[in-house]
Amino acid sequence: MYAAVITSSDAPPAYCAHPAPVAHDENEMVVEVLAAGLHHLTRAKAQGTHYSSAGEFPRVPGADGVVRDAAGRLRYAVLDDTNLGTFAERTVIDVRRSVVLPDGIDPVRIAAAMNPGMASWIALRRRISFREGQRVLVLGATGSAGRMAVQIAKRFGAAQVFAAGRDATRLKTALDLGADRTLTFDEISAAADVDVVLDFVWGAPAADAMLPILTARADRSAPLEWVQIGSIAGATAPIPSVALRASRLQILGSGIGSVSARDMIAELPELAAAVTDGDIDVQARAVPLSRVAEAWNEKASERTVFVP
Ligand SMILES: NC(=O)c1ccc[n+]([C@@H]2O[C@H](COP(=O)([O-])OP(=O)(O)OC[C@H]3O[C@@H](n4cnc5c(N)ncnc54)[C@H](OP(=O)(O)O)[C@@H]3O)[C@@H](O)[C@H]2O)c1
Q: Coil, strand, or helix at residue 221?
C-alpha cells in the first residue's frame, strides 16, 4: 500500500510504498482510510513535539480519521501514539477508540471537524460544569477550533459569546456563526463579565488579556474559569500573580490526559451527528494523499483533509 512517511522532525512526509498493516489483538482492526485531517496535533505528534508523542522515526502521521471497516461500516477513529497513523491507504485502529458513523456522511467534513470541534465540546462537557445561560469568551475565534467553539458554546446554551482574535476582518465571520460580539485583543475588557474563557491562543496574548478582563469585572469574586485548550501563540504565558489574587480566576486545561480517552470517545457520536446534520459549519479542503509533501506546510484557511 501507499502511505505518507516521515523520517525526521524537520522534513515533510514523503508519499511512498509502505508495508501493509497487521492487527495484533482482538481490539485491533485493519481498516481502509477514507479521510484524515491535518491538525496541529497531527503535525506536532508527527514531529515528536507533542507531549503525547514518543517521537520515533520513521512514522506514518495521522492522529484520527474516517475509515471503513471490514464489514463496510464507516467509523471515526482516534489513534493512540503510533508509528502507523491514518495518512495511509490502510491503517490499524483500536475499535474501542472509534465510533460507527451513519451511512451517507461526508468523510471529509467529519475528518476536518472532529479534532477542532472536540476541543471546545470536551472542555464544556467534560472539563468544567458549563451551564446554560453562562457567558463565554473565545480567544482565537478565527481558527478551526475557535470557529467551532463559538458554535458549540451557543449550541450548549451560552447566553452570550464573545469572539476574540487579532484580525478584526477575519473575526467578522464569527457573527454569522452566532457570536454576539467580536473583539480584538485591545478591546478585550468588553468581555470582562464572562464566566468562561476558551483559550486557543495562550502565550503573551492570553497573559496580556487577563488583567484588562479581571480588573474590569463588575464582581471580581464571581468565578471565572479560564480553560487553556491551545497554545498557538506560545507554550508558556507570563501570568501576573495579581490575576490570581485579585479575582476568582481559575485556570485549567483541557486536552489529552486531563480528560480520559473513554470520556472523550463518549462525546464523539453527538458531535459527529451535529456535523453531519449541518448544525456546525465546517471549512475543509480535500487533498489527495499523494500531494502530502507539498500540502504539509501549505497555509490554508480551511482544514486540510487528506484523501488516500
Ligand atoms: N486541547 C485540545 O483538545 C485541542 C483540540 C484541537 C486544537 N487544539 C489547539 O488549539 C489551537 C488552535 O487550533 P486550530 O485547529 O483552531 O488552529 P487554526 O485553525 O490554525 O487556527 C489558529 C488560530 O490561532 C490564531 N493565532 C495564530 N497565531 C496567533 C498569535 N500569535 N496571536 C494570536 N492569535 C494567533 C489564528 O488567528 P488568525 O486568524 O488571526 O491567524 C487562529 O484563530 C492549536 O494550538 C491546537 O493545537 C487543542
A: coil
